[in-house]
Amino acid sequence: MAPLVWLITGCSSGFGNQFVYNILARGDKVVATARDLSKIQQLKQLGVSTFQLDITDSQSSINATIAKVLAEHGRIDVLINNAAYIAIGTWEDLSYEDWLAQFDTNVFGTIKVTKAILPHFRERKTGTMVFISSLSGWIGHAGCSAYAGSKFALEGIVEGLHAETAHLGLKTLLIEPGRFRTKLLSSGNMIARTSDIPDYAEKSRAQMEGLVGEDQKQPGDPAKLVEIVLDLVREEGVAQGIEVPFRLPLGFDCYTDVKEKCEATLATLETWRNVATSTDMET
């Protein structure tokens, strides 16, 4: 296989940074981006192209950045939509602006980057789009509604994108990590609103303490997840000779929780089957 050109958002830490090293190890080329270019400048020493890219910028600004990447490299083969952060707090404690900011990055920023690259993929009739979702795209946990809402939204729009573009020869992968040892829970990537409302305060403080204590102690190994994603894109390793799934939960916790929710949903459908199917108009 000829070397692929990968463009990755959010490369200053976490999965984004890990992708850079694993992709280089496979002999491919990397275009690393970050909101703060100074945080990824050291990657240039590895032969990585670096670009400043804030996915909350305007569509025209993002389009211009993608045009510069294409001018330098001639093509993009794989897009990794990774940039995201997490807002923690109850519905009542998160401001409207907190909700807007959460969706602006995790949903609308991802849409804008993908829209900027889609015409290139469509023209070439080839290209792979990888979206890093979350267990929170399946389950809305208490105090995590804004983040879960953004990931639920991402799951729906990406599923629609997959249906729209598969016939063009484009591939779409939706990756759903559980708890991995990235910096998602660090102060730079987590916005936390501890509640002073008596009905929430005790649980809110306990949750904040738990999240701080879990930071850098999560069970998942980011390098192992990234290797699986590379296999899926390149159809090597664990993906060699088998059909690559559109959606894949990764992490023992994610597998367990998703399986439990699917089984509970199937049980509800069976129990309420007669009611659920009784709503058609009488003929």
TrEMBL record:
InterPro entries in UniProt: NAD(P)-bd_dom_sf, Sc_DH/Rdtase_CS, SDR_fam, SDR_oxidoreductase
A Pfam family that the UniProt record links to this protein: adh_short
An MF annotation (GO) of this entry: oxidoreductase activity
Keywords: NADP, Oxidoreductase
Stored SUPFAM superfamilies: NAD(P)-binding Rossmann-fold domains
Similarity comment text for this entry: Belongs to the short-chain dehydrogenases/reductases (SDR) family.
Protein name: NAD(P)-binding protein
Biological source species: Periconia macrospinosa
Phylogenetic classification of the source organism: Eukaryota, Fungi, Dikarya, Ascomycota, Pezizomycotina
